[in-house]
Write a structure and sequence with these properties.
Radius of gyration of chain A: 23 Å
Order of helices and strands of chain B: HEEHHHHHHHHHHHH
Chains: A mainly alpha (296), B mainly alpha (298), C alpha/beta (377)
Oligomer: heterotrimer
Structural class of chain B: mainly alpha
Structural class of chain A: mainly alpha
Largest sheet of chain B: 2 strands, antiparallel
Number of strands of chain A: 0
Shape of chain B: globular
Order of helices and strands of chain A: HHHHHHHHHHHHH
Largest interface: A-B, 118 and 116 residues
Helix content of chain B: over 70%
Strand order of the largest sheet of chain B: 1-2
CATH superfamily of the domain at 87-250 in chain A: MetI-like
């Protein structure tokens, strides 16, 4: 299914010619399309304006989110003293990590199976895997809650994890499928000709080749799960609630600037992570680390 | 050669090796999805003909009143509005994303990765926090309207927040990245020599764009459209934060029925109606891409 | 479809469907009917002593208790408060129905009655609460409220009313009537609360009807009259506080407590006003309640008692802006809402009895449909 295959920007051309291509392109593309440039500039401005607002008001000295009174760290201190928010942050991290591990494990196996196994079971599995992609999240959320209730399962952090995994498997599978398909099965067979068992061949040849894409996927799933509030809202129990649920419960009646402070910290954290992803490979003399994001 | 995704996978005619082990690879994931997703969706369908008790507990049964209630024109009205907003969001996202992706992919130079990172970063701040920030930006005394007023593009009566424009602006802000990434991917792997050939063949840059670049990125655009359309149809945050009295969407209605109204059967029935609409759309999309692929394979 | 997978045949699709049906059947069979609710027995409903029996699992609106009060409670009793929040009464009950075990919840009067009738709340022995006399001794209304005879299962937490908040600096004075919402002065900048009962109740009071009416004729009149408000309306939002502060609203239906909370933030309170319209103001009360399946009801009792201590009542009133029916706190609240005297909830307000009442299933459905029409237009 092509829905998400196209985005993986990688498969068609081999990875390396990028550099030479780029150089040649520069020569030709001197006439920059001004309209496109203007749109891009405007886009970036509007993209960051709300972020700037969030960051700015996190430093406000009064409770308002619309009137800026003065610069201070009041809301950061409030956050540090707010055990509820800190517990929520911890719960969210836990859920994201488990959901990431679970869905990447199941999704990678499923992707391998779907590509290599052309049986009827394969096409049934392929169909099932598409369902979450056409299901609005609110439906998935409600449905999971109904299911857990029907089964008599008490809602908890665990049930949030299960729903998040269910929701994420499809994304992993869809993204990895094109990567798996791009692998040459003959390499595996060559390994087997050299005496490896099938399992060894998968473990020593196929999986390492998939690793970068798997890592990229993990980052994506982590971010998606961490951000999600719809599924979590419906399936969370009496354990400390995930951060996004806490924010959602407050947003209807107006949030406190502590939330802005949390948002700002999260933003700073992710910028740090992405910067690491961008620069660390460079330290080792590899090409730009965004390959990780784009699944190269 | 890059005009179509190359056909991958094991070469035809080769013996499919050791199918069994690959079957086992599929089993856990498939079982998981069946147990937790398919089963729960079937429950939703079953509940659409159920009832509730006084505390809002759903009960199984066979009662068509919820399904009949869907004939109330209020619902189809909201559904049509949601379709309209989502389609409009798709179009606007495409109009924004194309130039942005084009600029980055073809003129980004060594800032390419940094720019893509800059697009992704805001999406790591919480969705709700971002939307709340956006609603502050769009408010009457917010920076956007103040700027527009100062250059004479808006007057004191102009408002964006709590209008249809506001909701669509919210949806666009929320989902435009899903359009940029696939388009960027498509443009990025577009072979520049093709454009050069196009220039030689057609002359002007506009014709080159229309006849070479655009067709080559059609699949990226299609993927982007689906990725924007689906979440937009289910969204309820945008209408809640940025809509007015005439802007509620189908997602808000569903949420209302499940919580405010405590009418789970009606909520389930609405849910099934929404999924049916999306399914029809998806089938159309799949057919279209299958045909594309068939053509591409020749 | 992609090249790797043969396009699904009709049989494949059917098989996928069958998979789902089978698993759903399994799910519902194992549950023996949907959502088996354990019938609470007498032991679950009997009052318990106030003593530490574990951490407190707390479920309330977000930001509705001063964080320093939690801190003090945790320190004094050596327990943790595990907090979750809901964004609507329905959301709260849905979670209770789902079997989540909270130690303390905060239903409004109408929802307290439903939970009491449904046998979902543990009885509370007032003599176990050292500070309860400040509530029940002085505020006779709450000694025997309509929603919970004898306050056997609940203790009142807050009391508040719904009126109109407005920007005095932009539109001048109002006339003290719900009709003000229809005035053209604030055209396009009027908000209503995003709440079914509040909006329908306002519409009914404005027409002189019963605040909880479910009569089809009445509801038609209410929706018709609310339809005439639509052109003046900017939206449904419960964030009255920020809407007024940032000028997106010139007039908004608002809870008295939110208006009082806004006073903390407004530099110049005189630019705002709050009125309790003369046709009648809906009145409401949140209360403390302990669900029958609470794991730590003893700690919950301690928590209620702790919250009723005068110093904590004062902290909370100042933090959330909602008055509490605890004797000794009346003056504190009066001082807090000096610019908005109509925020004060008096015994007479309570006796006017404009609480939202429960209706039958059919009546609730009728109100629900009316609300959909009001909202969807």
């Amino acid at each position: 299914m092509t829905l998400l295959r196209t985005p993986a920007p990688t498969d068609a051309t081999p990875a390396e010619p990028g550099r030479t291509r780029l150089r040649r392109r520069r020569g030709r593309a001197d006439r920059k399309p001004r309209v496109a440039l203007a749109v891009t500039a405007l886009f970036f401005a509007l993209l960051y304006l709300p972020i700037a607002v969030v960051v700015l008001f996190s430093f406000n000295t009064i409770k308002s989110l619309t009137v800026f009174d003065g610069f201070g760290l009041r809301w950061y201190r409030a956050f540090l003293h707010d055990e509820v928010l800190i517990n929520s942050l911890g719960t969210s991290l836990k859920i994201s990590l488990v959901a990431m591990a679970g869905s990447v494990l199941l999704g990678t196996a499923l992707a391998l199976g779907l590509v290599r196994c052309r049986t009827r079971l394969g096409s049934v599995a392929g169909l099932i895997m598409l369902v979450p992609l056409i299901t609005p999240e609110i439906v998935t959320g409600v449905a999971s809650m109904l299911l857990f209730k029907g089964l008599g399962v008490t809602l908890s952090t665990g049930t949030v994890m299960i729903s998040e995994i269910t929701f994420s498997i499809s994304y992993v599978t869809v993204i990895l499928r094109s990567r798996v398909a791009a692998l040459n099965p003959e390499v595996e067979e060559a390994a087997m000709d050299l005496g490896a068992t099938r399992w060894q061949a998968v473990r020593l040849v196929t999986l390492p080749a998939l690793l970068p894409a798997v890592l990229a996927c993990s980052v994506l799933i982590f971010a998606l799960v961490f951000d999600d509030f719809v599924l979590a809202y419906f399936t969370t129990g009496v354990d400390p609630q995930p951060l996004s649920v806490r924010i959602y419960s407050a947003i209807r009646f107006g949030v406190q600037p502590t939330i802005n402070a949390v948002g700002t910290l999260m933003l700073a954290g992710s910028i740090g992570l992405i910067a690491l992803a961008l620069f660390i490979p460079r330290l080792f003399g590899r090409r730009g680390g965004l390959d990780l994001l784009s699944g190269k | 050669m890059t005009l179509s995704p190359p056909s991958r996978g094991p070469r035809r005619g080769r013996r499919a090796p050791a199918t069994r082990i690959w079957t086992w690879f599929m089993v856990p994931g498939t079982l998981w999805m069946t147990a937790f997703l398919i089963a729960s969706l079937v429950l939703v369908a079953v509940l659409a003909v159920g009832t509730t008790d006084s505390l809002g507990n759903p009960r199984f049964g066979f009662d068509l009143s919820s399904v009949r209630a869907l004939t109330d024109p209020a619902y189809s009205h909201v559904l049509l509005r949601s379709l309209g907003y989502s389609l409009l969001t798709c179009v606007i996202c495409l109009l924004i994303a194309y130039p942005v992706a084009y600029t980055i992919a073809l003129h980004g130079g060594r800032f390419k990765n940094a720019m893509i990172a800059a697009i992704v970063v805001p999406f790591f701040a919480n969705y709700l926090v971002r939307m709340y920030g956006w609603s502050v930006v769009l408010s009457d005394d917010g920076p956007l309207l103040r700027a527009l007023r100062s250059i004479g593009l808006a007057d004191s009566g102009t408002k964006v927040l709590n209008t249809g424009t506001g909701v669509v602006a919210g949806l666009v802000y929320g989902f435009v990245v899903f359009m940029i990434i696939p388009l960027y991917a498509a443009l990025e792997r577009l072979d520049v020599s093709l454009i050069e050939a196009g220039r030689d063949l057609y002359g002007g840059p506009l014709r080159t764009f229309l006849f070479v670049t655009l067709p080559a990125t059609r699949q990226g655009a299609a993927a982007g459209l689906v990725l924007v359309f689906l979440p937009a149809m289910g969204d309820f945050v945008s209408a809640q934060l940025m809509g007015g009295p005439d802007q509620i969407m189908i997602g808000n209605l569903i949420q209302d029925k499940f919580f405010q109204g405590q009418n789970w059967p009606l909520g389930s029935a609405l849910t099934m109606m929404l999924m049916l609409v999306l399914l029809i759309g998806m089938l159309g999309y799949l057919r279209r891409t299958r045909k594309d692929e068939a053509e591409a394979r020749g | 479809m992609s090249p790797e997978v043969p396009p699904p045949s009709r049989r494949t699709v059917l098989r996928a469907g069958a998979c789902g049906l089978l698993s759903a059947a399994g799910a519902s069979l194992s549950g023996c009917g949907f959502m088996p609710a354990k019938k609470p027995d007498e032991r679950d409903l009997a009052p318990v002593r106030a003593r530490v029996d574990g951490d407190l699992v707390y479920f309330n609106w977000a930001d509705f208790v001063d964080p320093s009060v939690f801190k003090g409670f945790e320190k004094e009793y050596g327990v943790k408060v595990i907090q979750s929040n809901f964004d609507s009464m329905e959301g709260m009950v849905a979670k209770l129905n789902a079997g989540n075990r909270y130690d303390i919840v905060f239903p409004t009067a109408k929802w307290a009655q439903r939970l009491v009738r449904g046998g979902r709340l543990r009885r509370i022995d007032h003599s176990e609460l050292a500070n309860s006399h400040a509530v029940f001794g002085k505020h006779s209304y709450f000694a025997d409220p309509w929603y919970d005879p004898g306050s056997a299962h609940t203790v009142p937490f807050t009391a508040y009313k719904t009126g109109i908040g407005w920007r005095r600096d932009r539109i001048g004075d109002l006339t003290g009537s719900w009709k003000d919402l229809w005035s053209d002065r604030a055209r396009g900048k009027v908000f209503l609360l995003d709440d079914r009962d509040e909006v329908l109740g306002m519409g009914a009071l404005h027409l002189g009807l019963d605040v909880s009416t479910a009569d089809p004729g009445d509801l038609d009149r209410v929706t018709a009259s609310l339809a005439t408000l639509r052109p003046r309306l900017r939206g449904f939002s419960s964030d009255s506080y920020n809407n007024l502060l940032n000028g997106n609203a010139l007039m908004t239906q608002a809870w008295s407590g939110d208006m009082a909370a806004m006073l903390n933030q407004a530099k110049d309170p005189s630019v705002f006003g709050f009125q309790a319209p003369k046709e009648g103001t809906p009145i409401n009360s949140d209360c403390y309640a302990i669900p029958y399946n609470a794991r730590h009801p003893g700690t919950a009792m301690l928590f209620i008692d702790y919250m009723l201590r005068p110093e904590n009542v004062k902290k909370n009133i100042e933090y959330i802006g909602y008055p509490m029916p605890v004797s000794g706190s009346e003056e504190i609240y009066r001082a807090l809402v000096k610019p908005f005297p109509e925020c004060v909830v008096t015994e007479d307000d309570l006796k006017a009895d404009l609480f939202f009442r429960n209706g039958s299933r059919a009546q609730e459905d009728a109100r629900d449909t009316a609300w959909t029409h009001v909202k969807a237009g």
